[in-house]
C-alpha cells in the first residue's frame, strides 16, 4: 500500500463518525477567516461548561455561549456547527480526569473503587453530564481514556476482552445510577431540603398508619421496625448503601474470576 493510499483510507473511515466526534479528535479543519485567535473550540466549550455547571444543561444555547464570550452567535457556528456537537465536546471535556496511580496487583478491588468514586465526583462536579442522552459507545478521546482506565483495573485478571468491557459497563452503570441520586440530593439540599427528608426520617409514624400488612406484606415489617425510614432501634449493620452495593458487585466479579481458574 502506498503512502498516498493510507490517508485516503483513514479519511474514508473517519467519515462514519458524527461531526462532534471528529471535532473532539481535531479532525475538522478550523476556519481561517476572521482575526487570528478570535475564538477557539476549547474557549467555546469551556464557556458552555461553565454555564451548564451554574444553570443546568437547559440553559446552554449557542446564543448564550456566544454572549458570554462577547461574540455573535454566527461567530460560534464557524467553529461548532450545532448544539448537538457542542454537547459532545462538553461531555468529552469534563472526562479529562487524571486517574490515580496504579495500585499493586492484589488491590484490583480498590482500583475498581477508585474508578467508581472518581466517576461519581465527576458527575457531582458537572451535574448536567447525566442529562445528555446516551447515543452509543464512547468514541471521543477523553471518554475513551476513562474506558481505558476501567479496563486497566482488570489488567491482571483472567478475563477475556468481552468480559472486561462488560464489567466496565457494570461499574460505570453503578456510578451513573448513584451519580444521578447524589446529584438530585445535592440540588434538593441546595434548595433548602434536609438530608433526613431523603431517608424518610420524620415520616415513620405516619407510614406506620398508612402501610397496612394486607396491602404491603413484605414492606410492612420494615416500616413497623423503622428500618425503611432509617429510624430502627437496631444499628445498621451494612453501613453506607453505596459502599455496600459496590462491595457486592466486586464480590460477584471476584467469584466470577475465581470460577474461571482451572477451566
From TrEMBL:
<dbReference type="Pfam" id="PF02909">
    <property type="entry name" value="TetR_C_1"/>
</dbReference>
<keyword id="KW-0804">Transcription</keyword>
<dbReference type="InterPro" id="IPR004111">
    <property type="entry name" value="Repressor_TetR_C"/>
</dbReference>
<dbReference type="InterPro" id="IPR001647">
    <property type="entry name" value="HTH_TetR"/>
</dbReference>
<dbReference type="GO" id="GO:0045892">
    <property type="term" value="P:negative regulation of DNA-templated transcription"/>
</dbReference>
<dbReference type="Pfam" id="PF00440">
    <property type="entry name" value="TetR_N"/>
</dbReference>
<dbReference type="InterPro" id="IPR009057">
    <property type="entry name" value="Homeodomain-like_sf"/>
</dbReference>
<protein>
    <submittedName>
        <fullName>TetR/AcrR family transcriptional regulator</fullName>
    </submittedName>
</protein>
<keyword id="KW-0238">DNA-binding</keyword>
<keyword id="KW-0805">Transcription regulation</keyword>
<dbReference type="InterPro" id="IPR050109">
    <property type="entry name" value="HTH-type_TetR-like_transc_reg"/>
</dbReference>
<feature type="DNA-binding region" description="H-T-H motif">
    <location>
        <begin position="61"/>
        <end position="80"/>
    </location>
</feature>
<dbReference type="InterPro" id="IPR036271">
    <property type="entry name" value="Tet_transcr_reg_TetR-rel_C_sf"/>
</dbReference>
<feature type="domain" description="HTH tetR-type">
    <location>
        <begin position="38"/>
        <end position="98"/>
    </location>
</feature>
<dbReference type="GO" id="GO:0003700">
    <property type="term" value="F:DNA-binding transcription factor activity"/>
</dbReference>
<dbReference type="GO" id="GO:0000976">
    <property type="term" value="F:transcription cis-regulatory region binding"/>
</dbReference>
Amino acid at each position: 500500500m502506498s503512502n498516498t493510499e493510507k490517508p485516503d483510507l483513514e479519511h474514508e473511515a473517519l467519515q462514519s463518525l458524527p461531526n462532534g466526534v471528529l471535532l473532539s479528535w481535531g479532525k475538522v479543519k478550523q476556519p481561517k477567516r476572521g482575526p487570528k485567535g478570535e475564538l477557539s473550540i476549547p474557549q467555546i466549550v469551556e464557556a458552555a461548561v461553565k454555564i451548564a455547571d451554574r444553570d443546568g444543561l437547559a440553559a446552554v444555547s449557542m446564543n448564550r455561549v456566544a454572549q458570554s464570550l462577547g461574540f455573535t452567535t454566527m461567530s460560534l457556528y464557524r467553529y461548532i456547527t450545532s448544539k448537538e456537537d457542542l454537547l459532545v465536546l462538553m461531555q468529552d471535556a469534563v472526562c479529562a480526569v487524571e486517574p490515580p496511580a496504579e495500585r499493586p496487583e492484589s488491590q484490583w478491588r480498590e482500583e475498581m473503587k477508585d474508578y467508581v468514586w472518581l466517576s461519581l465526583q465527576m458527575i457531582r462536579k458537572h451535574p448536567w453530564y447525566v442529562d445528555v442522552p446516551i447515543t452509543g459507545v464512547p468514541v471521543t478521546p477523553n471518554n475513551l481514556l476513562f474506558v481505558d482506565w476501567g479496563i486497566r483495573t482488570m489488567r491482571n485478571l483472567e478475563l477475556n476482552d468481552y468480559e472486561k468491557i462488560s464489567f466496565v459497563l457494570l461499574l460505570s452503570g453503578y456510578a451513573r445510577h448513584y451519580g444521578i441520586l447524589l446529584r438530585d440530593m445535592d440540588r434538593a439540599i441546595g434548595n433548602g431540603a434536609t438530608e433526613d427528608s431523603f431517608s424518610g426520617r420524620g415520616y415513620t409514624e405516619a407510614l406506620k398508619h398508612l402501610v397496612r400488612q394486607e396491602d404491603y406484606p413484605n414492606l410492612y415489617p420494615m416500616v413497623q421496625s423503622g428500618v425503611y425510614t432509617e429510624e430502627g432501634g437496631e444499628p445498621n449493620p451494612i453501613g453506607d448503601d453505596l459502599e455496600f452495593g459496590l462491595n457486592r458487585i466486586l464480590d460477584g466479579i471476584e467469584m466470577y474470576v475465581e470460577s474461571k481458574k482451572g477451566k
